[in-house]
């Protein structure tokens, strides 16, 4: 039996996460305290999405919910308050996230100036508009429908705590420092499973909620970024390459599984919740 030990929502794509005690599992990801996972996103002047890959300082941008606002902080900056209430009269902006082009709400000049100062370059903050759907590819879902807001590909990322233990065993053997879980930016962390058991898990069930792992998560250089300081360090992918490369993804280093909510969307997940695990063999 697996135990849900961490729940993390990332209100702004590629910025710091927000650990929560409970969250609603929706078709397009977690929702907690009035905010959805990857509901906001930073883009450049051409509308192209920005991430820690190019701007590692994004790791130091930290959101939290206070009353009717998402309060965002960064080192050396006065806090920025973003209203949780949707302004449907706000202008829209066509933005690009990977192969998808979507119409997003622009969050205004004050927010653009604040984030631009943090990143030391011009950018805009946009928000996913209600009623819009961004379907995920069904290639890996067995045809099951799913969607995401501004997540890269799928609505949930699952990692077992024992997977990180195994990674850190290898890191220490190579003379490297152990890594915290936040380097891999999961939404769901479970304890009580074997190392990388999520790779061959068919489903996780709790009550009426069924979460289905569908695709290994190919890792980019972000795990090299210290999430506390925004400073890149040694890339752990060179250590992981020899034993975490997946032939099905052309040798990409994979840690964690992208997941969808197969059943029970609208149900609540809570820390300490038991999850029944069905393996795929």
Sequence-ordered SSE layout with sheet pairings:
Elements: E1 2-9, E2 18-19, E3 22-26, E4 29-32, E5 35-36, E6 40-43, E7 62-66, E8 69-73, E9 80-83, E10 92-97, E11 100-106, H1 109-119, E12 124-127, E13 156-160, H2 161-173, E14 188-191, E15 201-206, E16 209-218, H3 237-244, E17 245-246, E18 252-263, E19 267-270, E20 274-279
Parallel strand pairs: 13-14
Antiparallel strand pairs: 1-2, 1-14, 1-20, 3-4, 3-19, 4-5, 6-12, 7-8, 8-9, 10-11, 11-12, 13-18, 15-16, 15-20, 16-18, 17-18
What does this entry look like structurally?
The radius of gyration is 18 Å and the shape is globular. By secondary structure, it is mainly beta. The mean pLDDT is 96. Strands 1-14-13-18-16-15-20 form a 7-stranded mixed beta barrel. Helix content is 11%, strand content 37%.
Would you summarize the structure shown here?
Helix content is 11%, strand content 37%.
User: What order do the SSEs take from the amino end to the carboxyl end, as H and E?
Assistant: EEEEEEEEEEEHEEHEEEHEEEE
Largest sheet: 7 strands, mixed, barrel
Strand portion: 35-45%
Q: Which strand order spans the largest sheet, edge to edge or round the barrel?
A: 1-14-13-18-16-15-20
Rg, alpha carbons: 18 Å
Distance N terminus to C terminus? 17 Å
Give the count of helical stretches. Answer: 3
Total strands: the figure is 20
Please give a handful of descriptors for the protein shown:
281 residues; 37% strand; seven-stranded mixed beta barrel; 3 helices; 11% helix
């Amino acid at each position: 039996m697996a135990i849900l030990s961490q729940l993390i929502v990332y209100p702004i794509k590629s910025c710091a996460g927000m650990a929560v005690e409970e969250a609603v599992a929706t078709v397009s990801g977690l929702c907690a305290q009035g905010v959805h996972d990857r509901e906001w996103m930073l883009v450049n002047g051409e509308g192209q999405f920005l991430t820690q890959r190019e701007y590692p300082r994004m790791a130091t941008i930290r959101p939290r919910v206070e009353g009717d606002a998402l309060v965002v902080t960064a080192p050396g900056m006065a806090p920025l308050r973003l209203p949780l209430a949707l302004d449907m009269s706000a202008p829209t902006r066509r933005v690009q996230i990977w192969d998808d082009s979507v119409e997003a709400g622009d969050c205004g000049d004050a927010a653009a100036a604040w984030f631009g100062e943090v990143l030391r370059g011009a950018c805009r903050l946009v928000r996913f508009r209600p009623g819009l759907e961004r379907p995920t590819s069904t290639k890996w879902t067995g045809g099951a429908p799913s969607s995401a807001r501004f997540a890269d590909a799928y609505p949930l990322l699952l990692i077992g705590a024992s997977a990180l233990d195994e990674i850190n065993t290898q890191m220490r053997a190579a003379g490297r420092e152990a890594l915290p879980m936040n380097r891999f930016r999961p939404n769901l962390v479970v304890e009580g499973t074997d190392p990388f058991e999520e790779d061959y898990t068919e489903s996780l069930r709790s009550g009426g909620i069924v979460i289905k792992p569908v695709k290994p998560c190919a890792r980019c250089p972000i795990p090299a970024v210290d999430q506390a300081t925004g400073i890149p360090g040694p890339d752990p992918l060179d250590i992981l390459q020899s034993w975490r490369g997946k032939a099905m993804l052309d040798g990409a280093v994979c840690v964690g599984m992208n997941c969808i909510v197969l059943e029970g969307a609208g149900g609540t997940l809570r820390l300490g919740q038991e999850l029944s695990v069905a393996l795929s063999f």
